Amino acid sequence: MLKTTIQGLLTAVKGLTLTIKHLFAARTARRSKDIKDPNYFERQDGVTTVQFPKEKMSIPEVARYQLDVEIDDCIVCDLCAKACPVDCITIESIKATEAIGKTSDGSVKRLYAAQFDIDMAKCMYCGLCTVVCPTECITMTNQYDKSTSKLTDLIYGFAEMSEQEIVDRKAEWTKFQAEKEAAKTK
Ligand code: SF4
Ligand code: SF4
What we know:
Blueprint: H1 2-25, E1 67-69, H2 79-83, E2 89-95, E3 101-102, E4 108-109, E5 111-119, H3 128-132, E6 138-140, E7 155-157, H4 163-185
Residues 69, 74-80, 91, 132-135, 137-138 line the site of one iron/sulfur cluster.
């Protein structure tokens, strides 16, 4: 009985010592270090979290976060969607009857982007889509604070065509095809 009581007291003292140690250490708060600091991963004592979003941890320049698409530079080749292992990129293209412009790297654009959606709720941030893009117009940005309570808010649309434009461009292509077929049968 005496032995058990002493053991209980010793355990309580041990536990309290640890609690008091952490309590005093908590006077030191973590400081957000620059990612280039050689001691970035050094163990820090005290409170090891930062007061997000007031304080933010420094992140690498090449970090993989929110995707962005510069749609004016997209040739709608669908390579990114094909490379995506989780099928979170949905692209719908419409063929143009002639070249419709050039991207900033000089690639000729022959397709309209009727739909270009990325579901960031499914994205696993592998970066494959950015690697295969021939015009480098799909990139991973340093934006990571995109939390929302609605999953559908995480579907980002990058296409800029209006409903009417989509209808008109589709009609143009259908007419063009029909005229081509008619010319063949003449
Ligand atoms: S980063 Fe990976 S998972 Fe996300 S859209 Fe690109 S290919 Fe798909
Ligand atoms: S790979 Fe690049 S150019 Fe091709 S559809 Fe995707 S974003 Fe556009």
